Amino acid sequence: MLVLEREGLGRRIDEICARHGRNRSALLPILQELQETQGWVSDFAMQEVARHLGIHPVEVYSVITFYAFLSSERKGRFVLRLCRTISCDMRDKDRVARQLEQELGVGFGQTTADGRFTLEWTNCMGMCDQGPALMVNKQIFTQVTPESVHTILEACRRIYGLYAERSEDDALVSAGALQVAPEVLEARS
Amino acid sequence: MSLKNHNSILFRDGRPDEGLRKAVTMKRVDIITAVRESGLKGRGGAGFPTGVKWNFAALAQDPVKFVVCNADEGEPGTFKDRVLLADKADLVLEGMAIAGRAIGAKEGIIYLRGEYDFMRRHLEEVIARREAEHLLGERILGVDGFDFTVRVHMGAGAYVCGEETALIESLEGHRGEPRNRPPFPVNTGYLGHPTCVNNVETLALAARVIALGAEAFAKVGPASSTGTKLFSVSGDCARAGVYEFPMGITIEDLLREVGGEEAKAVQVGGASGTCVPRKSFGRRLAFDDASTGGSIIVFGPQRDMLRVARNFMEFFDEESCGQCTPCRSGNRVLLEGIGKLEQGTCSLAHLQELKALGETMQLASKCGLGQSSPNAFLSIVEHFKDEILARQGA
After folding, report:
1. Inter-chain contact B267–A62, Cβ cutoff 8 Å?
2. What structural domains does chain B harbor?
3. In chain A, whose CA is at the least distance from the CA of B259?
4. pTM for this structure?
5. CB-CB contact of B258 with B233 (8 Å)
6. Sites in chain A below the pLDDT cut of 70
7. Are the C-beta atoms of residues B173 and A24 closer than 8 Å to each other?
């Protein structure tokens, strides 16, 4: 890591810690923000966070390794998490999985060579009535088919790099990601 | 969205914040008495009487107390809290404020699971709106001394954090490993202060209890399990989704409503629940019979029950926090046993050993995760022996 990069990250962590508060209860929010903005929490970042909160770096490491959404290894720009739990399994998640592997050329647990995509399994994400469900960073897609996998990946590719047209959230929502307000439910009881 | 029906308690029309308006005119002890007399029990799955929990928290001597809304809905097959938070966030926040008043807490926290991040902005908007309307914040509804703020805290992908002591560990910035109980969170919870942890649905129902009165609520459902329950129905049925039924409905009746009459088995209570075979579909969904936090997974005639068991055991093998041995190693051994069953190389004697191991885990595990993780395996082995023994190996 370049000295300049390191100083920049240090300043950033200082700012994040000041915003969330320099106490232990703020550890998860701090790490979540680092994960979101950096794509991982590096050794250097762990040491800095530990210094600000007055705890040992290994404490920070132990928290990171406990939670599925925090990572001490560099992840791709987009982390794709496919639900593998029973209801999505019964709705043919295996076919979606195969299509994802073919489109990306990597298996589950791996990151593409260009650093764009990381493919992972996840456990039940509460979309059992609309499976198979796929999480792309923080957005959720439901009723994913092998065909719609392509649309979702294309939306990701369009918001990556120099020619990005619009924000990540906008692009993913327009590709069909779930939104809260108009939850579609039918009247039953 | 219109999950309306004249029997509905949660999704009925009514004057907004009726419960909260009533609660500010009541004494604290009367609020708790009403909740206790309604017979409301925790809707997250454990079924602890809510009024009793609130009473413990109210009696604890500490100027600082917390109300935590447990929105770490991770049980496979459960999604009712997602629907409730999306459609009835106001009702949940109303219930939190009432709980705050009842126990004397000034701060509330919604612990929202990481997967539901897409709802976070919506919740924060509702919180901000209610603060502007004086339904949260300082001097709620103009009542002196009734201050209650709510913030959203995000989880980070750990099923075990739905367990209330693990959730508190996580709030404090630690690994989500369950604590020994006692002391219970109502005495020693978040940051050592008395903390009342309630499920999303419980808080929403508590608001309704105050609005409708304990008697009206207790009239619905059997005496052991009063009120209505939200059921998250998924799997092999025509109409998956969230349903509100009175407690005590039979599995048979529920299946008719959701278009799952063909089912050969139903998983009641998610991965940590039990598998109920067709011949027992007359059982009732209530705390004293087939108990569920809301998850109903329907298995059609063609389903391979061993594949189902494998899916559940893989889930627990991964989600065990690893703190205590029965759960950490037990789930792994049961999963290996399923591998043997798949190969058709599992002797009946070995199967008996696995069952004994499952029963040991139920007794010896530290928290609810390990105590309930063998349930699905044990009930599937029990009811579908014919189907899973002596298979042709792959």
Report:
1. no
2. 18-218 (3.40.50.11540), 228-299 (3.10.20.600), 305-388 (1.20.1440.230)
3. A188
4. 0.94
5. yes
6. 160-166, 181-189
7. yes
